[in-house]
Specification:
This is STAS domain-containing protein. This protein is an alpha/beta fold. It is 45% helix and 18% strand. The longest helix is centred in the first third of the chain and has 18 residues.
Length: 130
């Protein structure tokens, strides 16, 4: 069975879906992504669906599941590249995609993930001078 590649980019995972997802492939992607979040300690998942012209209710549910499971593992989920027809379909199907952030493209999606990351204090001694 084919798999969707998952790329690690710093503290984030990037998935670019280039093929129409049938049910088994979508379930495999869900499992693979959640395992990679756990294995790598990723703080964000970016899913690029710009190549998809159709997202059905099952795929919408899978995206929602990925977001929910990633959130439990302390990672944010951003979906980018959504075609207008896909957005309309998701709304008409009544799929709110709770916990999923959206952005127009990969660049904006990465910026959104970066912005959602808590500030890291590299050295507590810097704060003692104030």
């Amino acid at each position: 069975m084919e798999r969707i590649p998952i790329l690690k980019m710093g503290k984030f995972l990037l998935v670019t879906i280039q093929v129409d997802l049938y049910d088994r492939l979508a379930l495999a992607l869900e499992e693979d992504l959640v395992m990679m979040v756990h294995k790598t300690g990723a703080k964000g998942v970016l899913i690029d669906i710009s190549a998809l012209s159709i997202v059905d209710s099952f795929m919408g549910k899978i995206i929602g599941n990925i977001a929910a499971m990633s959130s439990i593992l302390d990672a944010e989920t951003v979906v980018v590249g959504m075609q207008p027809a896909v957005a309309i379909t998701l709304i008409e199907l009544g799929l709110p995609l709770s916990g999923v952030y959206t952005a127009l493209n990969v660049e904006r999606g990465m910026a959104l993930l970066e912005a959602r990351m808590p500030e890291e204090t590299g050295n507590d001694r810097d704060n003692d001078d104030e």
